[in-house]
Amino acid sequence: MTGDDPRTLTRLLDAVDEAGGGEVVSVQDILDEIGEQSIMPIVLIVSILLVSPLSGIPGMPTLSSLILLTLILQAAVGRKQLWLPPFLRNRRVRAERLHVATGWLRRPAAWIDRHSHPRLRILTRHPLRLVTLMLCMAMPLQWPFLEFFPFVTSFGAGALALMAFGLLTHDGMYVLAGHIAVAAQVLAVLWLAQAAA
Predict the structure, then answer these.
(1) Does the model's pTM come out above 0.85?
(2) 4-26: per-residue pLDDT in tens?
(3) For a Cys staple, 9 with which of 84, 109, 115, 183, CB 3.0–4.6 Å?
(4) 105-120 burial by CB neighbour count: b if 16+ within 10 A, else e?
Protein backbone atom coordinates (compact mmCIF):
# COMPACT_ATOMS: atom_id res chain seq x y z
CA MET A 1 0.00 0.00 0.00
CA THR A 2 1.42 3.39 -0.93
CA GLY A 3 1.14 6.88 0.48
CA ASP A 4 -2.37 8.19 0.67
CA ASP A 5 -4.00 5.67 -1.69
CA PRO A 6 -7.69 5.33 -0.80
CA ARG A 7 -8.51 2.29 1.22
CA THR A 8 -11.77 1.31 2.79
CA LEU A 9 -12.33 1.32 6.53
CA THR A 10 -13.29 -2.34 6.33
CA ARG A 11 -9.96 -3.26 4.75
CA LEU A 12 -8.10 -1.25 7.38
CA LEU A 13 -9.97 -3.09 10.14
CA ASP A 14 -9.06 -6.36 8.42
CA ALA A 15 -5.41 -5.32 8.49
CA VAL A 16 -5.59 -4.54 12.21
CA ASP A 17 -7.17 -7.94 12.90
CA GLU A 18 -4.38 -9.63 10.95
CA ALA A 19 -1.59 -7.73 12.73
CA GLY A 20 0.62 -9.59 15.15
CA GLY A 21 -0.54 -13.10 15.82
CA GLY A 22 -0.01 -13.49 19.54
CA GLU A 23 -1.84 -12.46 22.68
CA VAL A 24 -0.71 -8.85 22.32
CA VAL A 25 -0.47 -6.54 19.31
CA SER A 26 2.06 -3.71 19.12
CA VAL A 27 1.91 -0.49 17.15
CA GLN A 28 4.77 -1.92 15.09
CA ASP A 29 2.68 -4.99 14.24
CA ILE A 30 -0.02 -2.72 12.81
CA LEU A 31 2.55 -0.70 10.89
CA ASP A 32 3.97 -3.90 9.43
CA GLU A 33 0.52 -4.92 8.23
CA ILE A 34 -0.62 -1.58 6.78
CA GLY A 35 2.74 -0.24 5.61
CA GLU A 36 5.02 2.56 6.72
CA GLN A 37 4.40 4.63 3.60
CA SER A 38 0.80 5.09 4.71
CA ILE A 39 0.58 8.07 7.06
CA MET A 40 -3.09 8.95 6.60
CA PRO A 41 -4.33 5.34 6.81
CA ILE A 42 -2.52 5.01 10.16
CA VAL A 43 -4.00 8.33 11.34
CA LEU A 44 -7.41 7.03 10.35
CA ILE A 45 -7.08 3.65 12.05
CA VAL A 46 -5.74 5.15 15.31
CA SER A 47 -8.57 7.69 15.48
CA ILE A 48 -11.30 5.21 14.53
CA LEU A 49 -10.08 2.72 17.15
CA LEU A 50 -10.36 5.47 19.76
CA VAL A 51 -14.05 5.78 18.90
CA SER A 52 -14.43 2.21 20.14
CA PRO A 53 -14.38 0.98 23.78
CA LEU A 54 -10.57 1.08 23.58
CA SER A 55 -10.80 4.74 24.59
CA GLY A 56 -11.78 3.60 28.09
CA ILE A 57 -8.43 1.87 28.67
CA PRO A 58 -6.23 4.01 30.96
CA GLY A 59 -3.43 5.60 29.00
CA MET A 60 -4.96 4.90 25.59
CA PRO A 61 -6.09 8.51 24.91
CA THR A 62 -2.61 9.82 25.77
CA LEU A 63 -0.86 7.17 23.68
CA SER A 64 -3.19 7.84 20.74
CA SER A 65 -2.62 11.58 21.11
CA LEU A 66 1.15 11.18 20.89
CA ILE A 67 0.92 8.92 17.84
CA LEU A 68 -1.57 11.17 16.04
CA LEU A 69 0.32 14.39 16.71
CA THR A 70 3.54 12.83 15.41
CA LEU A 71 1.88 11.47 12.27
CA ILE A 72 -0.32 14.44 11.39
CA LEU A 73 2.64 16.81 11.64
CA GLN A 74 4.47 14.61 9.13
CA ALA A 75 1.45 14.59 6.82
CA ALA A 76 1.23 18.39 7.05
CA VAL A 77 4.84 18.86 5.92
CA GLY A 78 4.41 16.35 3.10
CA ARG A 79 6.50 13.49 4.45
CA LYS A 80 5.81 10.27 2.54
CA GLN A 81 7.23 7.63 4.89
CA LEU A 82 6.09 7.80 8.49
CA TRP A 83 8.41 7.97 11.49
CA LEU A 84 7.59 6.98 15.07
CA PRO A 85 10.02 6.73 17.98
CA PRO A 86 10.65 3.25 19.41
CA PHE A 87 8.72 3.93 22.62
CA LEU A 88 5.55 4.46 20.55
CA ARG A 89 6.24 1.63 18.11
CA ASN A 90 6.62 -0.82 20.98
CA ARG A 91 3.41 0.05 22.82
CA ARG A 92 1.05 -2.91 22.98
CA VAL A 93 -2.58 -3.78 23.59
CA ARG A 94 -4.14 -7.15 24.23
CA ALA A 95 -5.20 -8.77 20.95
CA GLU A 96 -8.56 -9.73 22.46
CA ARG A 97 -9.39 -6.11 23.27
CA LEU A 98 -8.30 -5.02 19.82
CA HIS A 99 -10.51 -7.62 18.13
CA VAL A 100 -13.48 -6.55 20.25
CA ALA A 101 -12.89 -2.95 19.13
CA THR A 102 -12.64 -3.82 15.44
CA GLY A 103 -15.75 -6.00 15.70
CA TRP A 104 -17.63 -3.12 17.31
CA LEU A 105 -16.61 -0.86 14.42
CA ARG A 106 -17.47 -3.23 11.56
CA ARG A 107 -21.07 -2.17 10.95
CA PRO A 108 -20.53 1.62 10.96
CA ALA A 109 -17.36 1.18 8.88
CA ALA A 110 -19.27 -0.80 6.24
CA TRP A 111 -21.96 1.91 6.11
CA ILE A 112 -19.35 4.64 5.65
CA ASP A 113 -17.59 2.65 2.93
CA ARG A 114 -20.84 2.22 1.02
CA HIS A 115 -21.59 5.94 1.15
CA SER A 116 -18.23 7.30 0.14
CA HIS A 117 -16.91 8.47 -3.21
CA PRO A 118 -14.76 11.38 -4.42
CA ARG A 119 -16.70 14.67 -4.18
CA LEU A 120 -16.12 18.24 -3.01
CA ARG A 121 -12.46 17.59 -3.72
CA ILE A 122 -11.57 21.22 -3.10
CA LEU A 123 -11.88 20.45 0.63
CA THR A 124 -9.27 17.68 0.35
CA ARG A 125 -6.64 19.71 -1.53
CA HIS A 126 -4.24 22.44 -0.49
CA PRO A 127 -4.69 24.92 1.08
CA LEU A 128 -7.88 23.59 2.70
CA ARG A 129 -6.25 20.19 3.28
CA LEU A 130 -3.63 21.93 5.43
CA VAL A 131 -6.34 23.72 7.41
CA THR A 132 -7.99 20.36 8.15
CA LEU A 133 -4.66 18.81 9.17
CA MET A 134 -4.02 21.69 11.57
CA LEU A 135 -7.44 21.13 13.13
CA CYS A 136 -6.67 17.41 13.37
CA MET A 137 -3.47 18.29 15.23
CA ALA A 138 -5.21 20.64 17.65
CA MET A 139 -7.78 18.10 18.81
CA PRO A 140 -5.53 15.40 20.34
CA LEU A 141 -3.72 18.01 22.43
CA GLN A 142 -6.59 17.95 24.94
CA TRP A 143 -6.94 14.17 25.21
CA PRO A 144 -4.28 13.56 27.89
CA PHE A 145 -6.21 15.93 30.17
CA LEU A 146 -9.41 13.93 29.65
CA GLU A 147 -8.03 10.61 30.91
CA PHE A 148 -10.27 10.81 33.99
CA PHE A 149 -13.38 11.03 31.82
CA PRO A 150 -13.67 7.63 30.11
CA PHE A 151 -14.92 7.62 26.53
CA VAL A 152 -15.10 11.45 26.29
CA THR A 153 -12.22 11.37 23.83
CA SER A 154 -14.35 9.20 21.54
CA PHE A 155 -16.31 12.28 20.41
CA GLY A 156 -13.19 14.13 19.31
CA ALA A 157 -11.72 10.99 17.80
CA GLY A 158 -14.89 10.50 15.78
CA ALA A 159 -14.61 13.96 14.28
CA LEU A 160 -10.93 13.42 13.55
CA ALA A 161 -11.71 10.05 11.93
CA LEU A 162 -14.28 11.69 9.63
CA MET A 163 -11.75 14.26 8.47
CA ALA A 164 -8.96 11.70 8.03
CA PHE A 165 -11.27 9.42 6.04
CA GLY A 166 -12.35 12.30 3.84
CA LEU A 167 -8.75 13.32 3.12
CA LEU A 168 -7.74 9.73 2.42
CA THR A 169 -10.62 9.00 0.03
CA HIS A 170 -10.85 12.54 -1.42
CA ASP A 171 -14.41 12.78 -0.15
CA GLY A 172 -14.96 16.35 0.98
CA MET A 173 -18.37 15.51 2.46
CA TYR A 174 -16.68 13.60 5.28
CA VAL A 175 -14.16 16.39 5.79
CA LEU A 176 -17.07 18.83 6.08
CA ALA A 177 -18.89 16.49 8.46
CA GLY A 178 -15.78 16.36 10.66
CA HIS A 179 -15.58 20.16 10.78
CA ILE A 180 -19.26 20.36 11.71
CA ALA A 181 -18.73 17.77 14.46
CA VAL A 182 -15.85 19.80 15.89
CA ALA A 183 -17.91 22.99 15.81
CA ALA A 184 -20.79 21.22 17.57
CA GLN A 185 -18.45 19.99 20.31
CA VAL A 186 -16.98 23.45 20.81
CA LEU A 187 -20.46 24.97 21.06
CA ALA A 188 -21.50 22.26 23.55
CA VAL A 189 -18.48 22.99 25.75
CA LEU A 190 -19.15 26.74 25.64
CA TRP A 191 -22.81 26.17 26.51
CA LEU A 192 -21.90 23.93 29.45
CA ALA A 193 -19.34 26.45 30.68
CA GLN A 194 -21.89 29.25 30.51
CA ALA A 195 -24.51 27.14 32.25
CA ALA A 196 -22.09 26.30 35.05
CA ALA A 197 -21.07 29.95 35.53
Answers:
(1) yes
(2) 444 689 999 999 999 988 899 99
(3) 109
(4) beeebeebbeebeeee
